[in-house]
Structure formats: C-alpha cells, structure tokens
Specification:
Strand content: 25-35%
Structural class: mainly beta
Number of helices: 4
Largest sheet: 6 strands, antiparallel
Strand order of the largest sheet: 1-2-13-8-11-6
Radius of gyration: 17 Å
Distance between the termini: 29 Å
Low-confidence stretches: 74-90, 93-99, 107-127
Length: 215
C-alpha cells in the first residue's frame, strides 16, 4: 500500500535507483514502492527521477496535467521558434510485448527481484520485458486514463510539451487506471489526469528511468 501521506510535493527528483540512501530521509518511506518497480539490470546504479504528489483535490479539479499528452516533450520552443523536435525522457519499450505499452504490474506493491517470475510471462522474467519507461500509481479511482499504445514518431505528430489532444478522436476510449495498482508505460503512451467527480485526497507516485534528454 501507499505509505501514510505527509503533504509531499516533489517533481523529478534525481536519485540512484537501487540506493535507498540516495533519497532524502523525508522521502524514504516510499522506498518499498520504488522497490516494487521491476527495474532491469541495466537500470541498476543509474539515476532515476522520482515524483511524489500528495494533496487534496477539489471536485471538478485534477491533481496533475489535464488533456491528452505524452511524457515525451515533442516540440520544444525557444523565443517562439522550434529549436528541438526529437526529445525524450524515460523512453521505454517492451522487448516482447505480450501486454502492449501500458502494463499493470501488480496491486500489492510487491518487491520484484530479477529472476522472480510472476506467473504470466511463459517462464521469462517481468524485467526481461520492460526496458526503460515510466512507473506510476495513484490512490484515487477514475483520476487518470491511459491508452495501451505507443505513438510512433512522436516528434512528427505531437505538439509542444507532448500535447496530443488533436489525436483523441483516433485513439478510442482508453483505460481508466485503477487505484493502488502500479503501472508501467512508455514516454510515448498517451494519458491524461482527470477532474474528480468528488473531492478526495490523492497520492501520486512516478518513477522515470534513466534516459532523460529534456526536462
């Protein structure tokens, strides 16, 4: 389960992904959730980026970014001019995609060591499939929606800061992310934070793996 909330709000804090002591003491109670992310060997010892957002969200408001978007920035502008169009952080792919590009890993936040088979990967390990990407979870139902896909060549199809709203009509209904389920996705997986039907306190967790080119 998520740890008890403390009103934390940090965004893209760097830390060594397999080193608890690289995390400031006031955030270390999230270590078990970090350990639940089945990081492949190549991510061990590298810098990842941690986001924790704990806050009350009023009815009709969203805690995170509304509107369909990718985490890959897409087109970056400087002084009104495009100066970089192929940017990415997190990246992420499945070496053999049995579940596509949006994967609910588990709902118990268990610690996955490399070599543990969780039962539906035909004898291969979950960390053999997940390469890079983003791990995310929250505590509130119907607060985030994602699409099980990866937008190809996002530098040609998405707008500034990953804006993908113009693609909505082509993507279908998407998937509501369940509360307290850890998900993996690529940085080119469309998703959006949703306004809440009723006010609620929400905890949000995100771990971005080591490949970062723009932030």
């Amino acid at each position: 389960a998520f740890p008890d909330p403390q009103g934390i709000c940090i965004n893209m804090m760097p830390f060594i992904m397999d080193d608890k002591m690289s995390i400031p003491e006031e955030y270390r109670h999230y270590w078990e959730l970090i350990r639940a992310c089945p990081l492949p060997y190549e991510e061990r010892g590298k810098v990842g980026f941690l986001t924790i957002h704990e806050s009350f969200v009023a009815r009709g408001q969203s805690q995170r970014r509304q509107g369909l978007h990718l985490e890959i920035p897409g087109v970056v502008q400087k002084e009104g001019r495009v100066f970089q169009t192929k940017t990415a952080w997190g990246e992420g792919y499945l070496s053999i995609p049995p579940h596509g590009y949006l994967r609910g890993i588990n709902n118990r936040f268990e610690h996955f060591e490399h070599g543990i088979n969780n039962g539906d990967y035909n004898g291969l390990y979950i960390s053999d499939y997940l390469k890079g990407g983003i791990y995310t979870a929250s505590t509130v139902a119907d607060s985030c929606r994602a699409w099980n896909m990866r937008i190809p060549e996002p530098e040609k199809t998405v707008g500034s800061l990953g804006d993908s709203e113009h693609l909505r009509e082509f993507l279908g209904d998407g998937t509501m992310l369940e509360p307290s389920v850890l998900y993996w996705m690529t940085d080119a997986t469309p998703h959006e934070s949703l306004p809440l039907a009723e006010g609620a306190f929400r905890q949000y967790f995100r771990l971005v793996t080591s490949s970062v080119s723009v932030w």
